[in-house]
Design brief:
Strand content: 5-15%
Number of strands: 3
Distance between the termini: 34 Å
Helix content: 40-55%
Structural class: mainly alpha
Order of helices and strands: HHHHHHHEEHEH
Radius of gyration: 16 Å
Number of domains: 2
Oligomer: single chain
Strand order of the largest sheet: 1-2-3
Largest sheet: 3 strands, mixed
CATH architecture of the largest domain: 2-Layer Sandwich
CATH topology of the largest domain: GMP Synthetase, Chain A, domain 3
CATH class of the largest domain: Alpha Beta
Shape: elongated
């Protein structure tokens, strides 16, 4: 992270408050729970039904300066998606979406903070990747469409 990005970085809770997704009281309660739990703030807010998962995904994209990709409005290229085995896609919570110019592959990823997942994706795919943040619920729905009739390893 360079100095300019570091100065512009805003905590997730603050971003959600700025867009009116949660109240100050909800944020305070969730942050208290986060201190007692291994879960992340976004997971807590979604689990409690206070914020939809797509709002968390959009806020994470903004927070990290990575584009958000709405999978529900995106065509996934089957040949790109099948480059990543289903078990790896589910484990990494990621999916190749389509080929871009210059031999890059657009990849949707739920957690932009998971640097190990990003590195593993680069290794598994064997090409340069361009990451976009995607909503976990939309990703799961896309998996259901792509892998219909297939049994996946848990």
């Amino acid at each position: 992270m360079d100095d300019e990005t570091r100065d512009a970085w805003v905590p997730l809770g603050t971003l959600l408050r700025q867009v009116g997704a949660i109240s100050a009281e909800q944020l305070e309660i969730a942050l208290t729970e986060k201190e007692r739990s291994p879960r992340r703030l976004g997971e807590i807010l979604v689990e409690w039904g206070w914020v939809p998962s797509v709002a968390i995904a959009r806020a994470l994209a903004e927070q990290y300066g990575i584009p958000f990709l709405d999978l529900s409005a995106t065509d996934v290229a089957q040949d790109a998606a099948m480059l990543l085995p289903e078990d790896a896609a589910r484990r990494l919570q990621a999916l190749p979406i389509r080929f871009l110019p210059d031999r890059l592959l657009l990849v949707g990823l739920v957690d932009p903070t998971d640097l190990l997942a990003a590195e593993e994706l680069r290794s598994l795919l064997g090409t340069g990747i361009c990451l976009n943040v995607v909503d976990i619920d939309a990703l799961e729905a896309t998996f259901s469409r792509l892998y219909v009739g297939r049994v996946h390893a848990e």
